[in-house]
Write a structure and sequence with these properties.
Keywords: Coiled coil, Lipoprotein, Membrane, Palmitate, Signal, Transmembrane, Transmembrane beta strand
InterPro entries: MdtP/NodT-like (IPR010131), OMP_efflux (IPR003423)
Distance between the termini: 52 Å
CATH topology of the largest domain: Outer membrane efflux proteins (OEP)
Organism: Leeia speluncae
Subcellular location: Cell membrane; Membrane
Strand order of the largest sheet: 1-2-3-4
Protein name: Efflux transporter outer membrane subunit
Helix content: 55-70%
Oligomer: single chain
């Protein structure tokens, strides 16, 4: 075949393939699923709350606690969960690199030497018939598949989406870890503060019990009054034991969260007074700042690209193959110029009958995309619910705090009146102690509410994404 005939044949192959390509029938998607419109995500008017900026990436530092900062840094450095997430990112990057390499030409060196005994009763001519022949071959092979239908580009985009999703999932794991450590740390501080207050109540109750016992000896009190005071003392001791257990549970949880062999001694500190709020606009911004939603979004984008790969398989693939090298049956002359060989030419692969494999593969990809879109929509709905729940909890706690503060002020006013009456000898020490215990009871309620407020604040920060911001991916599959 001369060059003109070769070129003509190549052109015919391309034209026939083009005609057949126009006959390719890709089935329609009979079950399309749409993503939710994130721009409509807003809180209801009943849940309006003070406005604030989005949380910072190091949001826990707003509490100004060095112990907490150290615990979180330790957890981030030692966490097996974060190490696993980092490994998944490396795995996704390796897949992306492999897909990017598929778009580039391949060059390989190949060499072989064989020794064959030819048949003496076949078509092999003399002098080769019945004798051994040494065959040597050394070539440099080149192959390049043309990405006419965007299959390789779509594959790269799909892999890049998985990289971005893996990074978002790692950020989600880090947010889960930091919020868990912060919750347990303030649970420890709250239990410590409440335990200190209960011990003060026990001390005052012991004073009251001694006064009641003295009055009983004098015949001024009945036994049942003393038994009631003993019961109150036992209840306070029960609270002290419970709070001691809660402190230890918090330390155990912190040790696990920080993956530490031992946890350093933690100094008891007052619970911080920090105000949080909600950004003016949620909508699309909330989607971009929630790492698990961003991961779900990237999974959807990756699946859509995989659908494009599945569609491209319906069309013919074109590959250019070439080689240069040497081939001979006389090994001594393998690298002589007379032994040189070369070839170049296109090849085409067009699926015609595959028993429905391509359609089944496309339908499977579409079903997977639908699953991922539904999961994305669910995560969007849950995100708004979590923000709403956190705001509702904060509003409720703040209303309770206002009521408890009024109750404390009333208890303090009652204590002042009793102390004034004591100076005028119109009251005794027992009434003063009872008034002091009343103030301590209100302080305990306020401590509980403060711990609930901090827990709700942390949940709100988590619901707002904890300072995460979505990455961008360009058409070449590079994640920024």
């Amino acid at each position: 075949m001369n060059r003109r005939t070769f070129n003509r044949f190549t052109l015919i192959v391309i034209l026939v393939s083009s005609v057949l390509t126009g006959c390719v029938a890709i089935p329609e998607n009979e079950h399309p699923v749409q993503k939710l419109d994130a721009s409509k995500l807003t809180l209801t008017s009943e849940l309006s709350y003070r406005q604030a900026n989005w949380p910072a990436a190091d949001w826990w530092k707003l509490y100004g606690d060095d112990q907490l900062n150290q615990l979180i840094e330790q957890g981030r450095a030692n966490s097996p969960t974060l190490a696993t997430a980092a490994s998944r990112i490396r795995q996704a990057n390796a897949t992306l690199s492999a897909n990017q390499a598929e778009k580039l030409p391949t060059v390989s060196a190949n060499a072989s030497v064989t020794r064959d005994k030819e048949t003496a009763t076949g078509l092999i001519p003399v002098p080769y018939a019945g004798n051994y022949i040494n065959q040597g071959r050394a070539t440099l092979d080149f192959s390049y598949e043309l990405d006419w239908w965007g299959k390789q580009s779509a594959s790269i985009r799909a892999a890049a989406g998985q990289v971005a999703a893996s990074r978002a999932e790692a950020a989600s794991a880090e947010l889960m870890l930091s919020t868990a450590i912060t919750q347990q740390y303030f649970a420890f501080q709250s239990a410590s503060a409440q335990l200190a207050l209960v011990n003060q109540q026990i001390e005052k109750q012991d004073q009251l019990n001694r006064l009641q016992a003295a009055r009983l000896k004098q015949g001024l009190e009945t036994t049942d009054i003393l038994r009631q005071q003993d019961q109150r003392r036992a209840n306070l001791q029960q609270q002290a034991e419970l709070l001691t257990t809660l402190k230890q549970q918090a330390r155990i949880a912190l040790r696990a969260l920080t993956a530490s062999d031992s946890l350093p001694a933690l100094t008891a500190k007052p619970l911080p007074d920090v105000k949080t709020g909600v950004p003016d606009q949620l909508g699309v911004e909330l989607i971009a700042r929630r790492p698990e939603i961003d991961a779900a979004r990237w999974r959807v984008e990756s699946a859509l690209s995989q659908e494009e790969v599945a569609k491209a398989r319906f069309y013919p693939s074109f590959t250019i193959n070439a080689l240069v090298g040497f081939s001979t049956i006389d090994l001594d002359k393998l690298f002589n110029s007379a032994s040189q060989i070369s070839s170049i030419g296109p090849s085409i692969h067009l699926p015609i009958f595959d028993s429905g494999r391509l359609k089944a593969n496309l339908e499977g990809n579409r079903a997977q995309t639908a699953v991922l879109i539904n999961q994305y929509n669910e995560s969007v709905i849950n995100a708004l619910k979590e923000v709403s729940d956190s705001v509702n909890n904060l509003q409720g706690v703040e209303r309770q705090q206002a009521a408890s503060l009024r109750a404390k002020q009333a208890a303090q006013a009652q204590q002042s009146l009793v102390e004034a009456r004591l100076k005028q000898q119109l009251a005794d020490k027992r009434q003063v102690i009872q008034a002091e215990l009343g103030v301590m009871t209100e302080n305990m309620t306020l401590l509980n509410l403060k711990q609930q407020q901090i827990a709700a604040q942390i949940n709100l920060i988590k619901a707002l994404g904890g300072g995460y911001q979505s990455a961008n991916t360009n058409t070449a599959g590079e994640v920024k």
